[in-house]
């Protein structure tokens, strides 16, 4: 499945579930952007919290928590949640995330070409 198809599938599901992605005015659009930004930061926080626990296992003798291998499936799910929020934010801004990422990769290729070996 293409990246753009995945995004469309998620946005269609959001629409069916009553999570808006199109708006009458900028005030409504900005309000939803803020709501989804809070959701995005929350998901990043869940990823960070679990990764912190993995780090504590590695750095603190006697700490009981998950290994990286044990935490990896949940960490991946948190990243998937992050991606879904990115899909929503881009859609609300009437963007094309697939093309925007490709454009940014070209910019980064030029910006960081001096680092290539």
What's the count of strands?
A: 0
- From the N-terminal CA to the C-terminal CA, the straight-line distance is 33 Å
Amount of helix:
over 70%
Radius of gyration, in angstroms, nearest whole number: 18 Å
Percentage of β-strand residues: under 5%
Low-confidence stretches: none
Q: How would you sum up the major sheet?
A: none
Number of helices: 4
Tell me briefly what this model is.
With 117 residues, the protein is mainly alpha-helical. It has 4 helices and no strands.
Task: Describe the protein in words.
With 117 residues, the chain is mostly helical. It has one domain (3-115): Orthogonal Bundle (Helix Hairpins). Helix content is 75%, strand content 0%. It contains four helices and no strands. The chain has helices at residues 3-16, 26-59, 68-92, 97-111. Helix 2 runs antiparallel to helix 3 (68-92). It is globular, with a radius of gyration of 18 Å. 8% of the residues are buried.
Record the SSE blueprint.
Layout: H1 3-16, H2 26-59, H3 68-92, H4 97-111
Helix pairs in contact: 2-3
